[in-house]
Amino acid sequence: MPKVGMEPMRRSALVEATISEIGRAGSLDVTVSQIAKKAGVSSGLAHHYFGSKDQIFLAAMRHILVVFGAEVRGALLMAETPNDRLQAIIRSCFSAQNFRPEVVSAWLSFYVLAQQSDDAKRLLRIYHLRLKSNLMYALKQLKANNDEEIADTIAALIDGVYIRQALQRDEANAQRAVSLISTYVKDALEGQT
Amino acid sequence: MPKVGMEPMRRSALVEATISEIGRAGSLDVTVSQIAKKAGVSSGLAHHYFGSKDQIFLAAMRHILVVFGAEVRGALLMAETPNDRLQAIIRSCFSAQNFRPEVVSAWLSFYVLAQQSDDAKRLLRIYHLRLKSNLMYALKQLKANNDEEIADTIAALIDGVYIRQALQRDEANAQRAVSLISTYVKDALEGQT
DNA sequence: ATTTTTGTTGACTGTTGAGTCAATCAAAAG
DNA sequence: CTTTTGATTGACTCAACAGTCAACAAAAAT
What we know:
homodimer; mainly alpha; DNA-binding
């Protein structure tokens, strides 16, 4: 079985397994062995490819952020008006991919990780900046005079809805989440123009 | 030195130490020894009074919720109009006591704990229900036709602002947090009446 | 004065889990 | 056919830590 070129497959299997196990456990309290088992390999191999548990976590976090970023970019491509752009961003947050229970749960754990690891903090900051810049770009075109406050509110709302979803654990209602935030956006823009 | 009646003092010292250490570490990854040391006692004593680490965490969480609940109730007493009531609730969330960096950080960890422990989940659910009921009571008097959605949005906003504060770690700007949420409330109510 | 109760410690135990390492296997290269 | 290289394992080491326990200290009760 040992063929050449296994590395990328193993890496991504381990990353997926990490997200899945973190989601299942609801915390970073998962062992390398659990992750490896879920990925169908030995714990030694996980260390072989990633070096340490921390690196595995970071790789998983990077993966989630990359998937998220790609989805947002894809959705933005099809948006024509500034309002479309806002909707595209919001809807991306709650897409089937990103709003999966394990992923939501993993997000929460990554927020915790970011309090401990500088690398994780850096990753999350980049994500935050990109999200805000995307929001601001659309809001500026809409001539919202308090665009910065609105952007921060949207961002906080997204995080808040996520955290609450992580707790409830019933099947995620993405529709309601999107409508909640969209309603806010509508009200906020009406109130000020 | 061993006088009678030490128990309540030790318990509260340990609870305070737990919050402080969780806040410092940014996660539940603190040892009983660390907590005990911070409280100025031995690890054995912590076990003596609480039985297990889980129980210590739960006691700390209960303490935060009790303090929070008391503050909200106090603020509500002085509110006269429904709008005052909303403001009172929001302002309580960001009071000097509740919005301390360690407490904010501990909150985030408690959300994680609630994904693992049923007891923690129950505690948090009670807090959520009480918060929502307080919000709804005020919103109903304001004749908001979409009161439930507004209540959920406020709650999500509070959580979102908290989580972001936990990350930034710079000195908390409670003023801005309150104004962010108050602005939302104003817009939401104007938009619909 | 002695007994009981309450508070308190720190050493000890058992377990768990991260990371290492030598050895193995099979394909690819020469 | 032999050598190299990448993939892979599982046993092993070592440290950390939760929880236990026997023992001690001082006040309170008798």
